[in-house]
């Protein structure tokens, strides 16, 4: 490899290998080729479909490589200009959803051809000239395409903006642009900038309240449907990976206490897949009322404890209290499962000491499609796979804005477990946006990362 073009050559090699592997795995799985212009979702778009390990990792490597190449090749001023206009990314998507524009395109007599802006103007009572500008901007994001001058059609990913889709539910979270807009003011707030309190967040600034996000939402029942749908979408998007990539079957006949389990979505999904498991949902009284459950206290060896997307809402002191109480209730054979994102620093290795890109690409080839194991990134790809992990990092910054929450690294989770009287036993990577962190009382084995 010519060292003069080492970065360019390495990224090109990684991208080519990832795409070749992706193509081979599509064929091996009897899946159709991808098309951005397809009118129907691809099987990979279904959240109930779990991609084989090599296919899943090849896709992530390809996305990471593409954006790293973009960062390398793009003029810096063009990047700055893109970010100057990025506020319109979400605004134009909101136009698609809130005005019925997406659903109108989804009902076009000929989905491949689409609809002319004159027809959209008549149907939606909106200025076709202005809609043209919005839609052409959305073309640059891949949501739609212009099939003829002034005629627009939904691309395949545009199906996620249609009524009933998980993507639309995820985008329905209200006030996110307002919270993002106050980020600078909050980070520099003279009294709050070093606080980790849930009472010192952008929520209090935007809504002029002294209440925490949770308590403020209770005063706004009109927001419940939007928030519920957004949480449902986020929870269901990667459910198949969570069900598959941890050996839940090894707990046959045992009981899992789903702490902060809401209305029981995770427990219900696990129970359908592993009918021998038993579940108890524990949550706040108002949530349990929705689930029509009875409060129960469960202690001892007969129970395992599950926290899914709970502890990230709390600073270390409060999270320690929660886990300490759980440790007090647990028996020597109990397992404590923490389903959360494990943040990975975005460090880029530019050396050949790790074996170069050959080692990572050989590791991709060696994946067995039985047990999921993420590949280590090749040189010039961030350790967290960069753009392929943007949805995870986006969740962390949104939780920071809502709850002063934090993204914890593996070392952070280990420290939190130990300060709560627990031992981090093993971390299971998932084909999902989170991992399963298995903890237990200290008598059990040492930490292992899978």
From TrEMBL:
One of its GO terms (molecular function) is O-methyltransferase activity. InterPro entries: COMT-like (IPR016461), COMT_C (IPR001077), SAM-dependent_MTases_sf (IPR029063), WH-like_DNA-bd_sf (IPR036388), WH_DNA-bd_sf (IPR036390). Pfam families: Methyltransf_2. Residues 212-342 form the O-methyltransferase C-terminal domain. One of its GO terms (biological process) is methylation. It comes from the Eukaryota. Coiled coil: none annotated. The keyword S-adenosyl-L-methionine applies. Keywords: Methyltransferase, S-adenosyl-L-methionine, Transferase. This is O-methyltransferase C-terminal domain-containing protein. It comes from Hermanssonia centrifuga.
């Amino acid at each position: 490899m010519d060292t003069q073009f080492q970065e360019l050559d390495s990224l090109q090699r990684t991208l080519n290998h990832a795409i070749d592997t992706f193509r081979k795995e599509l064929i091996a799985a009897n899946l159709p080729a991808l098309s951005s212009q397809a009118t129907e979702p691809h099987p990979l778009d279904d959240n109930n479909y779990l991609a084989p390990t090599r296919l899943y990792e090849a896709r992530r490597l390809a996305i990471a490589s593409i954006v790293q190449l973009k960062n390398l090749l793009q003029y810096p001023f063009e990047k700055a200009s893109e970010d100057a206009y990025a506020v319109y990314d979400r605004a134009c998507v909101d136009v698609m959803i809130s005005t019925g524009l997406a659903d109108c395109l989804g009902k076009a007599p000929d989905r491949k051809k689409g609809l002319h802006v004159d027809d959209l103007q008549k149907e939606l009572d909106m200025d076709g000239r202005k809609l043209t500008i919005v839609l052409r901007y959305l073309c640059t994001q891949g949501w739609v395409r212009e099939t003829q001058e002034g005629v627009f059609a939904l691309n395949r990913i545009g199906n996620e903006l249609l009524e009933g889709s998980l993507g639309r539910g995820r985008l329905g979270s209200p006030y996110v642009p307002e919270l993002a807009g106050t980020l600078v003011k909050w980070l520099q707030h003279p009294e709050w900038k070093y606080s980790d309190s849930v009472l010192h967040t952008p929520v209090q600034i935007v809504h002029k309240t002294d209440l925490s996000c949770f308590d403020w939402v209770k005063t706004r029942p009109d927001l419940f449907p939007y928030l519920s749908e957004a949480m449902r979408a986020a929870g269901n998007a990667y459910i198949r990976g969570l069900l598959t990539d941890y050996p839940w079957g090894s707990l046959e006949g045992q009981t899992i206490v789903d702490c902060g389990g809401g209305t029981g979505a995770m427990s219900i999904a696990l129970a359908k897949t592993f009918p021998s498991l038993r579940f108890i949902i524990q949550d706040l009284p108002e949530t349990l009322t929705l689930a029509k459950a009875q409060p129960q206290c469960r202690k001892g060896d007969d129970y395992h404890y599950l926290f899914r997307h709970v502890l990230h809402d709390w600073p270390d002191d409060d999270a320690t209290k929660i886990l300490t109480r759980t440790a007090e209730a647990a028996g020597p054979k109990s397992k404590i499962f923490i389903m959360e994102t494990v943040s990975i620093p975005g460090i880029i290795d530019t050396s050949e000491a790790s074996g170069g890109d050959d080692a990572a690409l050989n590791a991709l080839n060696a994946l067995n499609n039985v047990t999921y194991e993420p590949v280590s990134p090749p040189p010039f790809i961030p350790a967290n796979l960069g753009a392929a992990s943007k949805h995870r990092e986006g969740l962390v910054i949104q939780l920071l804005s809502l709850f002063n929450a934090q993204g914890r690294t593996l070392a952070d989770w280990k420290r939190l477990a130990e300060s709560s009287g627990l031992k981090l036993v093993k971390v299971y990577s998932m084909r999902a946006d989170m991992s399963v962190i298995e903890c237990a009382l200290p008598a059990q084995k040492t930490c292992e990362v899978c």
